[in-house]
Design brief:
The chain is of the alpha/beta class. The protein contains 16 helices and 14 strands. It folds into two domains: about 210 residues, 3-Layer(aba) Sandwich (Rossmann fold), CATH 3.40.50.300; about 200 residues, P-loop containing nucleotide triphosphate hydrolases (Rossmann fold, 3-Layer(aba) Sandwich). The protein has a seven-stranded parallel β-sheet with strand order 3-4-2-5-6-1-7, sandwiched between helices. The chain binds adenosine monophosphate. Adenosine monophosphate binds next to helix 3.
């Protein structure tokens, strides 16, 4: 079934067509008509089910209607557990509203970054606020937002809001919202506490429960950026800030690199710590505790030290240096996408690591598109296949200890030293 029968505005349909959403997902088909009617909704929905658009489309539709009439201004408040999700949901809604004659004001607000720009953005009110609970209460305390005019509340990933200890903040926020409002409740699971909140919050809700879809199992998205070796730290910094990543585990090849990269990030006000075998056990435990509690946002680690790291909800793993083997690669990226959450694994591919990454892709049976970011275009040329990356030992290449290097080995060494082209045969 296409989207058309759902009665969404032409502007929304245009945005959907641009995103190549040909038809609504199951949760969208189930939720959109009820939300348009103003009903409360209780939906059991996994990440990846299309739940953002399931509440975003009808809420934007209603907002668009209100914006073209003289109806009193009412805000939509969307509470989410993490800043990544706040940025993501805000971005999706912004894109879906791209063709509205008058663009709604959509603000994503979350902790871990300066509050002042968010206070400025909220001046004069906002149509949609996507927020993490702690920062929202800070903004209320600063008189930057008045919750009495938010007549629609969405709880996104309600179970994770509880897991992350936001129960008390939620209660305080609920007390500030108008009593008469539309409530939309989305959660992947309904343990007793979550169910109890749903029961008190929702009035005669439409219940949506979809059979779990195996295709929606948490997935690790792999991305690869081509970049010059000496621009990697800058690119890392850029990505962390751009995507508001709250916790990133960065893998480097040496203890030295761990220290240097962490130091450079700290100089740029990113809370980073090195993590390697030379640090005392006490220090390592401290770093891990701080990382888990989000007091440290980036840990720069060597493979050896990272073996034992198991952090629930780690959203991003970064290969600043590629690991030596494909097995290590799988081990590294498996640190994310745990406990039913989506994960992102990003690799930096310098020119001399290209051949090695191809090998890693081959072992996994996948290909990862190479991306180049504006401002970080690589200038180094890729070495031909078969050339080892510095520090990476590829059996059969570079000579075996005790044996005299062959002519081919010598040529390779020369090519490496001079950075010139080398072709076999
Ligand atoms: P969500 O569950 O909201 O995180 O969405 C999961 C993914 O599905 C996102 O990448 C969306 O862009 C995508 N998506 C949502 N709705 C549709 C649709 N109707 N058709 C195709 N993709 C969709």
């Amino acid at each position: 079934m296409p989207f058309t029968p759902l009665g969404l505005s032409p502007e929304l349909l245009k945005a959907l067509a641009e995103r190549h959403y040909a038809q609504p997902t199951a949760i969208q088909t189930a939720a959109i008509p009820s939300i348009l009617q103003g009903r409360d909704v209780r939906a059991c929905a996994q990440t990846g089910s299309g739940k953002t658009a399931a509440f975003g489309l009808p809420l934007l539709h209603l907002l668009q209607q209100r914006m073209t009439t003289v109806l009193a201004k009412q805000g939509v408040l969307i509470l989410v557990p993490t800043r990544e999700l706040a940025a993501q949901v805000g971005g999706t809604l912004f894109a879906l509203a791209a063709h509205f004659p008058k663009r709604p004001k959509i603000c994503a607000v979350f902790g871990g970054v300066s509050i002042n720009p968010q206070m400025m953005r909220l001046r004069g009110g906002a149509d949609v606020v996507v927020a993490t609970p702690g920062r929202l209460l800070d903004l209320v305390a600063h008189n930057a937002i008045e919750l009495g005019s938010f007549a629609t509340l969405v709880l996104d990933e309600a179970d994770r809001l509880f897991d992350l200890g936001f129960a008390e903040e939620l209660e305080r926020i609920l007390a500030l919202l108008p009593a008469k409002r539309q409530n939309l409740f989305f959660s992947a699971t309904f343990p007793p506490k979550v169910q109890a909140l749903a029961d008190t919050l929702l009035h005669d809700p439409v219940r949506i429960e979809l059979p779990p879809d195996d295709a929606l199992k948490p997935a690790i998205t792999q991305r690869a950026f081509r970049v010059d070796a000496d621009k990697r730290t800058r690119l890392l910094r850029h990505l962390i800030k751009e995507h508001a990543w709250s916790r990133v585990l960065v893998f480097v090849a040496t203890k030295f690199a761990a220290e240097i990269v962490a130091d450079k990030l700290r100089k740029d006000s990113i809370n980073a710590e090195p993590f390697h075998g030379v640090l005392s056990q006490g220090k390592r435990t401290q770093v891990l505790q701080d990382f888990k509690a989000s007091r440290v946002s980036v840990v720069v680690a060597t493979d050896m030290a990272a073996r034992g790291i198991d952090i629930a909800g780690l959203p991003v793993v970064m290969n600043y240096d590629l690991p030596r083997s494909a097995v290590d690669y799988v081990h590294r990226i498996g640190r994310t996408g745990r406990a039913g959450l989506e994960g992102l694994a990003v690799s930096f591919i310098t020119a001399d690591a290209e051949a090695h990454f191809k090998l890693i892709e081959k072992r996994q049976g996948v290909t990862v598109a190479r991306e180049v970011l504006a401002g970080f275009e690589p200038t180094e040329a890729a070495l031909p296949a078969g050339t080892p990356a510095p520090g990476v030992h590829v059996p059969g290449v570079g000579g075996v200890k005790g044996k005299r290097p062959s002519k081919k080995d010598k040529l390779r060494a020369l090519a490496l030293a001079e950075g010139s082209e080398f072709s076999e045969g």
